[in-house]
């Protein structure tokens, strides 16, 4: 009987575990995500695991065993709930595979939602780093208009959208 198991990997060891398990003849699925990150004031595209430190392994219970998986380089353990191994339904793996881009195999995350006009924000980078303000509106591609209280009056400034963070202290979220 074929079943999907959840494998816990070492930190940043998903691809090492994936290649070593495939070399041993196991079917492995490691869903990946294309992600935009800011490094040294530049946006860069990275490919990262959709579920950091986890991958899925399909095992034929009649002819394969999990013993060698636990000692594979890159693998920390097989996920368990008590004394039984965690299994994932085939439908879930098929649904994950269906949501991936057919050409690249990568998953895409939608861009983060913009704050509602009038909501409190905090600026996380740039010349206004650390200042709190009020989101007013989107201004062109990847820019926003923010109201900052400067010298006793509200001043409109334009900043890149990815510099904005919701101000959790002001909005009441913890």
Question: What would your notes on this structure say?
Answer:
There is one protein chain. This protein has helices spanning 14-23, 67-70, 90-99, 168-171; strands spanning 2-9, 27-29, 32-39, 42-49, 54-60, 75-78, 80-81, 84-85, 87-88, 106-108, 120-123, 132-138, 143-150, 153-160, 164-166. The chain is α+β, with helices and mostly antiparallel strands. The strands form four sheets. Strands 1, 2, 5, 6 and 9 form a five-stranded antiparallel β-sheet that branches. A five-stranded antiparallel β-sheet has the order 14-13-12-11-15.
What is the structure about, briefly put?
This protein has 174 residues and is an alpha+beta fold. Helix content is 16%, strand content 44%.
Residue-averaged pLDDT:
88
Summarize the biggest pleated sheet: 5 strands, antiparallel
Level of helix content? 10-25%
What is the distance, rounded to the nearest whole angstrom, between the alpha carbons of the first and last residues? 46 Å
Extended strand count: 15
Describe the protein's topology.
Elements: E1 2-9, H1 14-23, E2 27-29, E3 32-39, E4 42-49, E5 54-60, H2 67-70, E6 75-78, E7 80-81, E8 84-85, E9 87-88, H3 90-99, E10 106-108, E11 120-123, E12 132-138, E13 143-150, E14 153-160, E15 164-166, H4 168-171
Parallel strand pairs: 3-10
Antiparallel strand pairs: 1-5, 1-6, 1-9, 2-5, 3-4, 7-8, 11-12, 11-15, 12-13, 13-14
